[in-house]
Amino acid sequence: MRCESIAFALGMLWPGSALAICTSFGVTATSVDFGVYDPSGTTETTGGVAVQCGIGVLPAFTVGLSKGSGSYAQRQMLNGSDKLTYNLYTDAAHMTVWGDGTGSTVTQGLSGLITLGSTTYTVYGLVDAAQYPAPGPYTDTITVAVNF
Predict the structure, then answer these.
(1) How far apart are CA 74 and CA 77, in angstroms?
(2) How many whole angstroms separate alpha carbon 76 and alpha carbon 19?
(3) Which helix (H) or strand (E) holds 18?
(4) Count of CB atoms situated within 10 Å of the CB of 95
(5) From CA 141, how far away is CA 6, in angstroms rounded?
(6) What digits encode the pLDDT tens for the residues 97-145?
């Protein structure tokens, strides 16, 4: 069974003053691709989110991830009506769910300033073992929100 990648939709929120500080702002995301799922064990992988400032100073910000097709407690990749549960974390030990800061989720962020550079965050993905969905490609879309 193939677990397709988790695609990231990019969303950016900032007040007008942030544009004057950083005139060349960008966000890039690397998809989380679990590959072929084997129900006999957990499946782990990583992706990434990078926030860049090409010209100027990048102010303090937070990076949140949406729930996707499920909830923060249990995100879901879908193949029609079939589901494969997974989650996204801020740490390799899969202890802290990366979300929007509500409930038991956290955001990533920067509290200082970056001049002409970027900050990259690793997204740690995990699909638990012992799920037996129908074979096929499973996908989900997560929105990345950068808030200044």
Answers:
(1) 10
(2) 35
(3) helix 16-21
(4) 9
(5) 6
(6) 999 999 999 999 887 666 557 789 999 999 999 999 999 999 999 999 9
